[in-house]
Write a structure and sequence with these properties.
Largest sheet: 4 strands, antiparallel
Strand order of the largest sheet: 2-1-5-6
Number of helices: 1
Helix content: under 10%
Shape: elongated
Distance between the termini: 59 Å
Number of strands: 22
Length: 281
């Protein structure tokens, strides 16, 4: 609360004090809106938490038979930063540009920003990182060509005289997506699948990159009507890889024999590129 010390002859009563905020009289309605009370001593009392709306120039006016006197005080409300992180891509691809934006929506005064990677402060210009202020309340962490070594936890820290606020996000760098898989169906009895040996082959090509020297492979998943095919649950079903051709990989699903009752459905093949450094859906 804000005290007011009253002197004079005759001495005015505390109840005679009138308070103004930014030259506007604190009426009953305005006091209720701001959650402000005037105590019998003449002191101004703020109920609850102070907010931005409480900031301003407060003036106490008191009078007696000798005249009128005023005193003013400037109230500045400090507010901790409130942060929001926005990433340029939720699935950053190896070699692409990547950015994280850190925006403060409430801090007063405006904060100073810092960035951290796995707990260590990031220095702009080192390890491929650039940090710049897009505006007074927005800091940007930019990577012109993201690498597997940039995978990890990133924290934005904003500090002002009201306190410190942090926000964290995780980044996983992915390989470029493989080509759309193609399925070829082979039956031992032509188009009559029931009772014959049916083999479905899935083929996809992985994209290479000069930004790493790991071994590229591909992982396949067979699905029937949207559910994973489990070859361990049925001895008729066999899933096995086929020899690769450069960066072209393939797998086969074999039904021996195929059943029109059990095996009928829609089959799809999903593929993700992997390496001994990282992986990509």
């Amino acid at each position: 609360h804000q005290e007011v010390f009253i002197t004079g002859d005759p001495r005015p009563d505390g109840n005679s004090v009138q308070w103004y905020k930014d030259s506007v009289l604190l009426t009953a309605g305005l006091k209720a809106e701001l959650q402000i009370d005037i105590l019998p001593t003449g002191a101004l009392f703020f109920n609850g938490f102070t907010e931005m709306k409480h900031g301003g120039n407060y003036t106490a006016l008191v009078n007696n038979s000798a005249g009128v006197s005023t005193a003013s005080i400037l109230v500045t409300v400090l507010i901790k930063p409130k942060l929001k992180l926005t990433v340029s891509s939720s699935t950053p691809i190896l070699g692409n540009e990547f950015q994280i934006q850190c925006r403060d929506s409430e801090g007063d005064p405006l904060p100073q920003f810092s960035w951290f990677y796995n707990g260590d402060e990031i220095i702009s210009g080192e390890n491929g990182y650039m940090i710049y202020n897009q505006s007074e309340d927005v800091s940007v962490l930019s990577i012109s060509q993201i690498l597997f070594s940039h995978t990890g936890s990133y924290k934005c820290e904003a500090i002002n005289t009201a306190g410190i606020t942090t926000k964290t996000t995780s980044v996983e760098v992915l390989l470029p997506s493989p080509s759309t898989p193609m399925i070829n169906v082979i039956s031992s009895n032509g188009s009559n699948y029931a009772g014959s040996v049916v083999t479905m082959q899935c083929v996809s090509t992985v994209q290479s990159s000069d930004l790493f020297n790991g071994e590229l492979t591909a992982e396949f998943t067979w699905k029937k009507n949207g559910e994973d095919v489990n070859d361990a649950a049925d001895s008729r079903v066999t899933i096995s890889p086929l020899p690769k051709n450069g960066l072209t990989f393939s797998t086969q699903l074999r039904l021996s024999p195929a059943s029109s009752v059990v095996d009928s459905g829609s089959y799809t093949c999903e593929v993700k590129a992997t390496s001994d450094q990282n992986s990509s859906e």
